[in-house]
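Deliverable D2.4 — example input (structure tokens):
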């Protein structure tokens, strides 16, 4: 669900084949970003018009010439699906290059990604308000990657060697959106971004991370001592052993350090890996920060970076 709707920052209203968002606080409207949207010309965004509705700012989106991606999935073959994905990535790269707009305010729910069915060109919905849909660019990209992986895994008609490899690339946290896009267009294997390659085990310039058990029978700390550190209950398979909970899988999850950042990946565990109560998609790296709560099955651990 759109986080701005959920937090009651905006209300959605259908307007025939178009739709609009009503701002509950007109002071949150960002006029500069709106002006940038209007000046884009052949934009990657759905055309947006500022209006008034009962004294409140209404952002009116003209979508009648497009179809939402959610309504097209059952009729798409894998080739057309990959064309649409490439166009989504191209639009996102354009936004990053723009410098005036933020990916954090793009609604990437499948109902709000619009497609021209004649060309498969994609138009995105941008909401020019001070509140952000996503806390950071990592959250935005993780949501997009997860959504596309779920589509591929959920529709047998889209399950081909090409899309399965695409899903694997999306799950690989060392591959940037730009690298994956280049791979789609060239047909060649993507190149990992050198800026986010895992650090050497001997490097520890950014503080050491540990997981502190919150509901274990005894005080337990798991110190992340390698750039790739697996956790589970079977000692022969993992670096960090959790033996007090039988619901934790033999090889449950992996924590990876890339530069100053840490990521956790669920390794297809039976009972799931959660970050701040949100269940992770298997094999999809998720950024974690100091103070986050990680749940492995039904055991909670707090992230501590010292």
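Example output (designed residues):
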């Amino acid at each position: 669900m759109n986080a701005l709707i959920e937090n009651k920052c905006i209300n959605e209203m259908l307007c025939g084949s178009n739709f609009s968002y009503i701002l509950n606080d007109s002071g949150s409207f960002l006029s500069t970003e709106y002006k940038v949207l209007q000046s884009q010309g052949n934009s990657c965004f759905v055309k947006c018009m500022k209006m008034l509705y009962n004294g409140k700012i209404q952002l009116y989106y003209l979508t009648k010439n497009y179809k939402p991606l959610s309504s097209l999935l059952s009729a798409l073959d894998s080739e057309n699906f990959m064309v649409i994905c490439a166009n989504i990535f191209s639009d996102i790269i354009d936004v990053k290059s723009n410098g005036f707009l933020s990916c954090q305010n793009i609604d990437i729910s499948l109902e709000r990604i619009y497609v021209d069915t004649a060309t498969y060109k994609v138009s995105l919905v941008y909401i020019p308000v001070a509140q952000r849909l996503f806390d950071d660019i990592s959250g935005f990209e993780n949501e997009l990657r997860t959504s596309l992986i779920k589509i591929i895994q959920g529709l047998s008609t889209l399950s081909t060697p090409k899309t399965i490899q695409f899903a694997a690339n999306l799950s690989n946290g060392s591959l940037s959106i730009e690298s994956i896009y280049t791979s789609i267009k060239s047909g060649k294997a993507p190149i990992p971004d050198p800026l986010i390659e895992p650090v050497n085990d001997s490097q520890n310039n950014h503080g050491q991370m540990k997981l502190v058990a919150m509901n274990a029978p005894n005080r337990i700390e798991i110190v992340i001592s390698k750039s790739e550190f697996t956790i589970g209950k079977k000692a022969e398979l993992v670096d960090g052993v959790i033996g007090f909970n039988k619901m934790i899988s033999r090889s449950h999850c992996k924590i990876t350090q890339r530069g100053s950042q840490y990521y956790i990946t669920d390794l297809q565990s039976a009972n799931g890996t959660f970050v701040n109560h949100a269940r992770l998609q298997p094999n999809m790296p998720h950024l974690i920060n100091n103070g986050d709560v990680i749940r492995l099955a039904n055991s909670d651990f707090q992230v501590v970076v010292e």
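The CA atoms of residues 152 and 164 lie 7 Å apart.
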